[in-house]
Design brief:
The structure is a single chain. With 474 residues, the chain is an alpha/beta fold. Helix content is 45%, strand content 15%. The chain has four domains: 127 residues, Rossmann fold; 176 residues, P-loop containing nucleotide triphosphate hydrolases (Rossmann fold, 3-Layer(aba) Sandwich); 87 residues, Helicase, Ruva Protein, domain 3 (Orthogonal Bundle); 63 residues, Orthogonal Bundle (Arc Repressor Mutant, subunit A). α16 crosses α17 and α17 packs across α18. The C terminus is likely disordered.
Length: 474
């Protein structure tokens, strides 16, 4: 292990501070010291420590406040707490804030040296992870995001800068461009990575239910509230809360959300007790929030609270050089879930066909097109005949390569029969994986179950045609 690590000792007792400095210096470490949180922040900005030895009881603030202040400045050193007043509550609080180790004073030199060695080893590993992530960025891969176009490389750079801080981030972009994928990437490389990531779609709930979803409710707060429920803010405590489709939030709810963000406390519906929360907010919208502000449909003060740092996910039509890599990525994912398929990739003609499309549904549309093509092409390369027309003039219609891949619907068939054939063949191609089949078909899992139940009832459970399909249903 590198012996010239930088260690910051934050301790208000001068004798203890000097003793720690001497012990660590003897082991070959570079040591800086501070006696309170304010001076520790200043020293950390100058010194950039790999590890901080931190006393909890400091004259100006609780020692754990230093962790928050460092993270707000984009620093995330390994933290070891030293305290003469150990308690279960303080230990739990320390662990929730990401403290690496928690030692009670007086501590034996051997134990301290062992803890510091482990902490610095962890710091080295984290540094190596950061280095590998930067290499992947240059290669067009960042967490779950794919692409090496200039727009994506710039996005990776911005994410790498903002993720280590505690700043609120507003993610803007068209539907299907991967805003939640981006939000999860920000969380995964932040100091909160080991804590909860909670996502809520603000457009999925009526206003009365959205308040309960976000803030929770007490038993009896409204009709049907038979038990108390923890809301998303409390679920995400010490972690990250992702508010998707924030532009759809009603004005009254915007006011309540703003209060929670300002006070860092939440009150459940029907309750009187305010619960302190420590949550990083990421918000996203496919709407023009500036236009909504001008129309009086989105609060300016909430906008500024959320828009500390802004990221934009580019539409697929503006990063077409990434299309082939994205298509291959989605195909690999499908084949991993369906190992019996023998699809090998895309022909040059198929890729050219895909690149000619404007992709109004962006990356989400591409993923669905690739999965459907993989259903139709059970082996070999995906070719243009496995791809849809996209509703554009002059495009060739989908024509499967052979009868094994085809869904044959005779002219004059009823819509219900056509639907039945498509559902059962898709389910067979997915080897009975109903969630995967529902995703490819573009229907809910509940709808798929309903249709399968209807087919079972209609056939009396003994249809020869349905036999192979039911055999794959699990």
């Amino acid at each position: 292990m590198n012996r010239s690590h930088r260690v910051l000792v934050v301790e208000d007792q001068e004798a203890v501070r000097r003793g720690l400095e001497e012990l660590l210096s003897e082991d070959g470490h570079r040591v800086a010291t501070a006696s309170d949180v304010e001076s520790a922040v200043a020293r950390a900005l100058e010194f950039a420590p790999h590890l901080v030895l931190l006393d909890l009881n400091l004259p100006d603030k609780n020692g754990l406040e230093l962790i928050r202040e460092l993270r707000e400045r984009g620093m995330d050193p390994t933290i070891i707490v030293l305290t003469a007043h150990a308690s279960i509550d303080s230990a739990v609080d320390a662990v929730q804030r990401g403290v690496f180790d928690y030692l009670e004073k007086p501590v034996l030199p051997e134990r301290l040296r062992a803890a510091v060695a482990r902490g610095l080893e962890r710091a080295e590993l984290r540094g190596e992870v950061d280095r590998l992530r930067r290499e992947m960025m240059r290669g067009g891969r960042f967490e779950e995001m794919i692409g090496s176009s200039p727009r994506m490389l710039e996005l990776y750079r911005l994410v790498d800068q903002v993720a280590p801080t505690n700043a609120a981030v507003l993610i803007l972009g068209e539907s299907g461009t991967g805003k939640e994928v981006l939000a999860r990437a920000v969380h995964r490389i932040s100091p909160r990575a080991s804590r909860p990531f909670v996502a809520v779609n603000c457009a999925a709930f009526p206003e009365s239910l959205l308040e309960s979803e976000l803030f929770g409710h007490e038993k009896g707060a409204f009709t049907g509230a038979t038990a108390a429920r923890v809301g998303c803010f409390e679920q995400a405590d010490t972690g990250t809360l992702f508010l998707d489709e924030i532009g759809e939030m009603p004005l009254e709810m915007q006011t309540k959300l703003l209060r929670v963000l300002e006070e860092k406390k939440v009150r459940r519906v029907g309750g009187s007790r305010e619960v302190p929360i420590d949550v990083r907010i990421l918000a996203a919208s496919n709407r023009d929030l500036d236009a909504l502000r001008a129309e009086g449909r989105f609060r300016e003060d909430l906008f500024f609270r959320l828009n500390v740092f802004q990221l934009e996910t580019p539409p697929l039509r503006e990063r077409m050089t990434d299309l082939a890599a994205l298509a291959e990525h989605f195909l690999r994912g499908f084949l991993e879930e369906n190992p019996s398929r023998r699809t090998t990739g895309f022909s040059a003609e198929a890729l050219a066909f895909l690149k000619a499309h404007s992709w109004p549904g962006n990356v989400r549309e591409l993923r669905n097109v690739v999965q459907r093509a993989a259903v139709l092409c059970s082996e070999g390369e995906i070719r243009p005949e496995h791809l849809p027309r996209f509703g554009e003039a002059g495009r060739p219609a989908t024509a499967p390569a052979d009868d094994r891949d085809a869904v044959s619907i005779p002219v004059g068939s009823s819509l219900s029969r056509a639907e039945r054939e498509l559902i059962l063949r898709t389910l067979r191609a997915c080897e009975g994986n109903k969630p995967q089949a529902a995703k490819i078909l573009g229907i809910s899992l509940k709808t798929l179950y309903t249709r399968l139940h209807e087919y079972e009832a209609g056939s009396g459970g003994s249809s020869e045609r349905d036999g192979p399909d039911r055999g794959g249903i699990r």
